[in-house]
Specification:
The chain contains 14 helices and 11 strands. With 309 residues, the protein is an alpha/beta fold. The protein has 3 domains: 1-42; 83-243, Rossmann fold, CATH 3.40.50; 254-285, no CATH class.
Length: 309
Amino acid sequence: VHQSKLDFFCKLGYGKQDICKVLESLGEDALEDDVLKELIRIGSKPQALESQAQPFPLKLVARGSCSTTSGLKRLGEDDGDSSGYLRPIVIDGSNVAMSHGNKEVFSCWGIQLAVDWFRERGHTYIKVFVPLWRKEPPRQDSPIADQHILEELEKQSILVYTPSRKVKGKRVVCYDDRYIVKVAYEKDGVIVSNDHYRDLQNENPEWKWFIEQRLLMYSFVSNRFMPPDDPLGRHGPTLNSFLSKKPQKVLPEPTWQPCPYGKKCTYGNKCKFYHTERPHQAQLSVADELRAKTKVPLNLGKDKCSRLP
């Protein structure tokens, strides 16, 4: 009887020590209801209830982010640049390869140099667009160097082939420039090419502004990929600001700059610089200053000149 009651209350989740203690105090002939009341009275709880009573540790999650790691993985690489402050990069593969091959050879090594340059800067979203027919064996009229690089970049999900096919022996090629501009525009990124895409600028006014403001030109100097330090000209942003989502702050120039000539300046009131020797005086010409010091009226000299025969 003792063992059967012990097994019964153990199945309910109560501990053996509490059950034995109650059975010793009430006796083996005690009813199950009495044993249960005594267990409740002494504060014993089933293990299932104890586990529910203990709250799980809360994990704080940033607002707008996924609460599980699987949710984070679903975002994928197309979510943009994971670095947060660097713009996505879209490379015109044909333009870069032909530029590195001196417009004679499709040099895949030039594409690799450009990709490595942006990787070293920290860009994680890098896409290279190349026509699909570049996977075919090279011919005399279209030589290709280091073609294996295209396969390696494709495995890394960096290189994307634009569609092409053959119809009755003729190759039908989709316009790869349209892919390049469209993806860069949707990702708010940067186009790496020496092409101006004038036909696409005339086609879409929004693309026209985007190409003018987000086109990054480049040069190859001894197998070195070199974009300019001022992509939009001397008065435009620096290269770091151009490739960043948040442009770097430029310190404003001081309103007053000291005159480099100092007291030897002869520009007078035409001088645009600040003179420390006359902080509270109006900027007068040298002749007017001399007249003011000698207390000669300004019109005196003019009257003498008018009286001369």
